[in-house]
């Protein structure tokens, strides 16, 4: 199952996104056992993303290889557990968090790679900068020592309105392109989960985060 899903996905992704750009597939591994994650890695997954600091820590040494992404909501007081272990932080969604990560990174004499999370659907239940503030946040965080902004991340609202979803993807791509124009660090537009990744790729996402499509339905115990 896992092996076949990974092979099918990777072969589909060889074509790139709608703009012909290379796509990075991040396996979203919340609730999955290290053994399942290792099977996905064996099958060709190079990037894995955890949502919760506790799971990130518990599985850190049990998972063999892979770039370790953090993709979930991050409490400021837990940043310390991720320092130096995280390949890319997708969910930098507020200044307080960015400042804590910057401070801890400077103390550790490292630079942390981050994405700026945008609340593209203006949903109360989701984190992220409002779209109207995202570019200013980018400009400020770009100047912040200890951080390197690599792009943007968003979660689309749950909706069957494809026109709406496409237009939200387009807003994200415009933001990404504007930042990328004069900044060679800007590389990733992380947009797309199991329910909407094809639409996101068609509209210019170049990093997708898939859980169900790789591992099957989640079982929250
Ligand atoms: C769980 C999760 C995903 C993947 O969700 P699926 O629908 O299972 O593909 C992607 N991104 C984030 C931030 C998640 O928490």
SSE arrangement, N to C: HEHEHEEHEHEHEHEH
Major sheet details: 8 strands, parallel
| Total number of beta strands | 8
Helical/strand content category: alpha/beta
Strand line-up of the largest beta sheet: 7-6-5-4-3-2-1-8
Outline type: globular
Radius of gyration: 17 Å
- First-to-last CA distance: 21 Å
Task: Give the strand content.
Answer: 15-25%
Write structural notes for this entry.
- The structure is a single chain.
- Helix 5 (131-142) links the parallel strand 5 and strand 6.
- The two termini are 21 Å apart.
- The protein is built from eight helices and eight strands, in the order αβαβαββαβαβαβαβα.
- It is globular, with a radius of gyration of 17 Å.
- It has helices at residues 2-13, 34-42, 53-59, 95-107, 131-142, 162-180, 197-202, 212-215; strands at 24-28, 47-50, 67-70, 88-92, 112-118, 147-154, 188-191, 207-210.
- Helix content is 37%, strand content 19%.
- Helix 5 packs parallel to helix 6 (162-180).
- The mean pLDDT is 97.
- With 221 residues, it is α/β, with parallel strands linked by helices.
- An eight-stranded parallel sheet has the order 7-6-5-4-3-2-1-8.
- The structure holds pyridoxal-5'-phosphate.
